[in-house]
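Run log // design_07
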C-alpha cells in the first residue's frame, strides 16, 4: 500500500450530543504467523451485506424523511464497498482479516455502514454490497508494511471475486456506480484500475464515489475527477474536517489530494452554505435537514460545527466517519442525476 496516497483516521463521530468511539486494538503479530479466515462464496447470499434479491439494511430509508427505496425500478447498479469495522481485539483466531461468517461482525457492518451509507444509493440504484475479509484497522497504522499490504491484498481478493461474480450473474450490461468509504475506497481504487480504467467496462461507469481516502486527481489513467453535478464517467472524493484544522498526517496524502464539494459537486474552493444541504443522517438513522456547510480547502473538505441537537457539546475536528452521513441526501439526489444523465447520453449515442 502506498501510504502517500492513502490514510485512515481514528473512528470518532460526534452527532446528536453523543460520542461514538470504537475501541482500537493494535496487532503485534506478523501476518505470516497468523491464521486467515476462509474465502467467501459469493453464490451464498449470506456472504453479501446487500443484494436486491434479499431484504437487508440497504433497503432502508429514514423514517422521518418521507423517502422510499426504489430498487425494483432502478436502471443502474451500485457496487458498494464498506469501510473498516474490524477495529477491536479479534474475538477468534483470525487476527489480520475479519471472517465473513462472523455473525457479530456482520451485524455491526449492517447496522452501521450499510444502513447509514449504502442507503444513500437506493433511490437510483440496485445495491450490491459484498461482505469481505476486511483488513484490521492496524493495517493503516502499523510500521509492519509487509503485514499491512498482505492483509489488504487478501481483502482485495474478495472484492475482486465478488465483482466478478456480480458481473457474471447480476449486471447484464446495466450502468454501474462504484461507491465506497475509507478502506472500501482503497479497494475501489484498485478495482477501478483493474476493471474500468481504459477498459471496455468503463463505458458502463456512471460515476465513482471514492469517499474517505485521500485520492490525487491523476490517480487513474483515463478516469478523471468530475467537476459538475451531472458529469458522468468520472470520480468524486472528499475527506471532512472542521474548518481551520490540519491533521498531523496532512502531508501523508491530503496535501496531494483532489477534493469535491458534495454541496456543489465542484472542485473549486467556493464556500457553500448549509442551506444547500438537503439533509443528513445521524444517530438511530434519523434524518436532519441542513446539518452543515462545505468548502474545499487544500485538498480537504472543511465544515463548520454541524447544526444538530446537542451541537454545543460537539468538539470533533475529524469528521471521517460522517463523510457520507452529513451529505446523505445530496449524494442521493446526485446519484439520481448522474444516472439519468448517463442514460440520456447513451440513448442519444445509440441513436
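design_07 sequence
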Amino acid at each position: 500500500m502506498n501510504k502517500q496516497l492513502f490514510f485512515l483516521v481514528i473512528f470518532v463521530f460526534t452527532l446528536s450530543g453523543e460520542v461514538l468511539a470504537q475501541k482500537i486494538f493494535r496487532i503485534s503479530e506478523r501476518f505470516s504467523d497468523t491464521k486467515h479466515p476462509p474465502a467467501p462464496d459469493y453464490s451464498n447470499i449470506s456472504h453479501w451485506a446487500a443484494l436486491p434479491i434479499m431484504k437487508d439494511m440497504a433497503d432502508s430509508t429514514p423514517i422521518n424523511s418521507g423517502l422510499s427505496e426504489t430498487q425494483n425500478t432502478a436502471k443502474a447498479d451500485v457496487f458498494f464497498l464498506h469501510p473498516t469495522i474490524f477495529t477491536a481485539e479479534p474475538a477468534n483466531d483470525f487476527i489480520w482479516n475479519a471472517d465473513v461468517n462472523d455473525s457479530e461482525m456482520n451485524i455491526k457492518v449492517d447496522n452501521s455502514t450499510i444502513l447509514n451509507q449504502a442507503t444513500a444509493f437506493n433511490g437510483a440504484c440496485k445495491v450490491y454490497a459484498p461482505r469481505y475479509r476486511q483488513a484490521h484497522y492496524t493495517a493503516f497504522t502499523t510500521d509492519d508494511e509487509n503485514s499491512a499490504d498482505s492483509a489488504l491484498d487478501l481483502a482485495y481478493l474478495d472484492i475482486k471475486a465478488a465483482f466478478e461474480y456480480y458481473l457474471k450473474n447480476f449486471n447484464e450490461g446495466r450502468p454501474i456506480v462504484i461507491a465506497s468509504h475509507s478502506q472500501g475506497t482503497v479497494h475501489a481504487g484498485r478495482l477501478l484500475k483493474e476493471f474500468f480504467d481504459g477498459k471496455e467496462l468503463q463505458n458502463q461507469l456512471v460515476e465513482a464515489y471514492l469517499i474517505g481516502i485521500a485520492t490525487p486527481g491523476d490517480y487513474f489513467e483515463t478516469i478523471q475527477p468530475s467537476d459538475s453535478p451531472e458529469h458522468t464517467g468520472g470520480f468524486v472524493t472528499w475527506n471532512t474536517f472542521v474548518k481551520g484544522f490540519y491533521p498531523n498526517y496532512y502531508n501523508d496524502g491530503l496535501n496531494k489530494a483532489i477534493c469535491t464539494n458534495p454541496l456543489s459537486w465542484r472542485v473549486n474552493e467556493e464556500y457553500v452554505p448549509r442551506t444547500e444541504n438537503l439533509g443528513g443522517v445521524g444517530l438511530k438513522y434519523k434524518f436532519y435537514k441542513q446539518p452543515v456547510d462545505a468548502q474545499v480547502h487544500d485538498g480537504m473538505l472543511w465544515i463548520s460545527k454541524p447544526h444538530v441537537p446537542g451541537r454545543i457539546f460537539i468538539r470533533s475536528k475529524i469528521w471521517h466517519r460522517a463523510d457520507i452521513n452529513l451529505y446523505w441526501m445530496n449524494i442521493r439526489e446526485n446519484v439520481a442525476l448522474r444516472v439519468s444523465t448517463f442514460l440520456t447520453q447513451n440513448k442519444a449515442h445509440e441513436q
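The first helix runs from residue 103 to 116.
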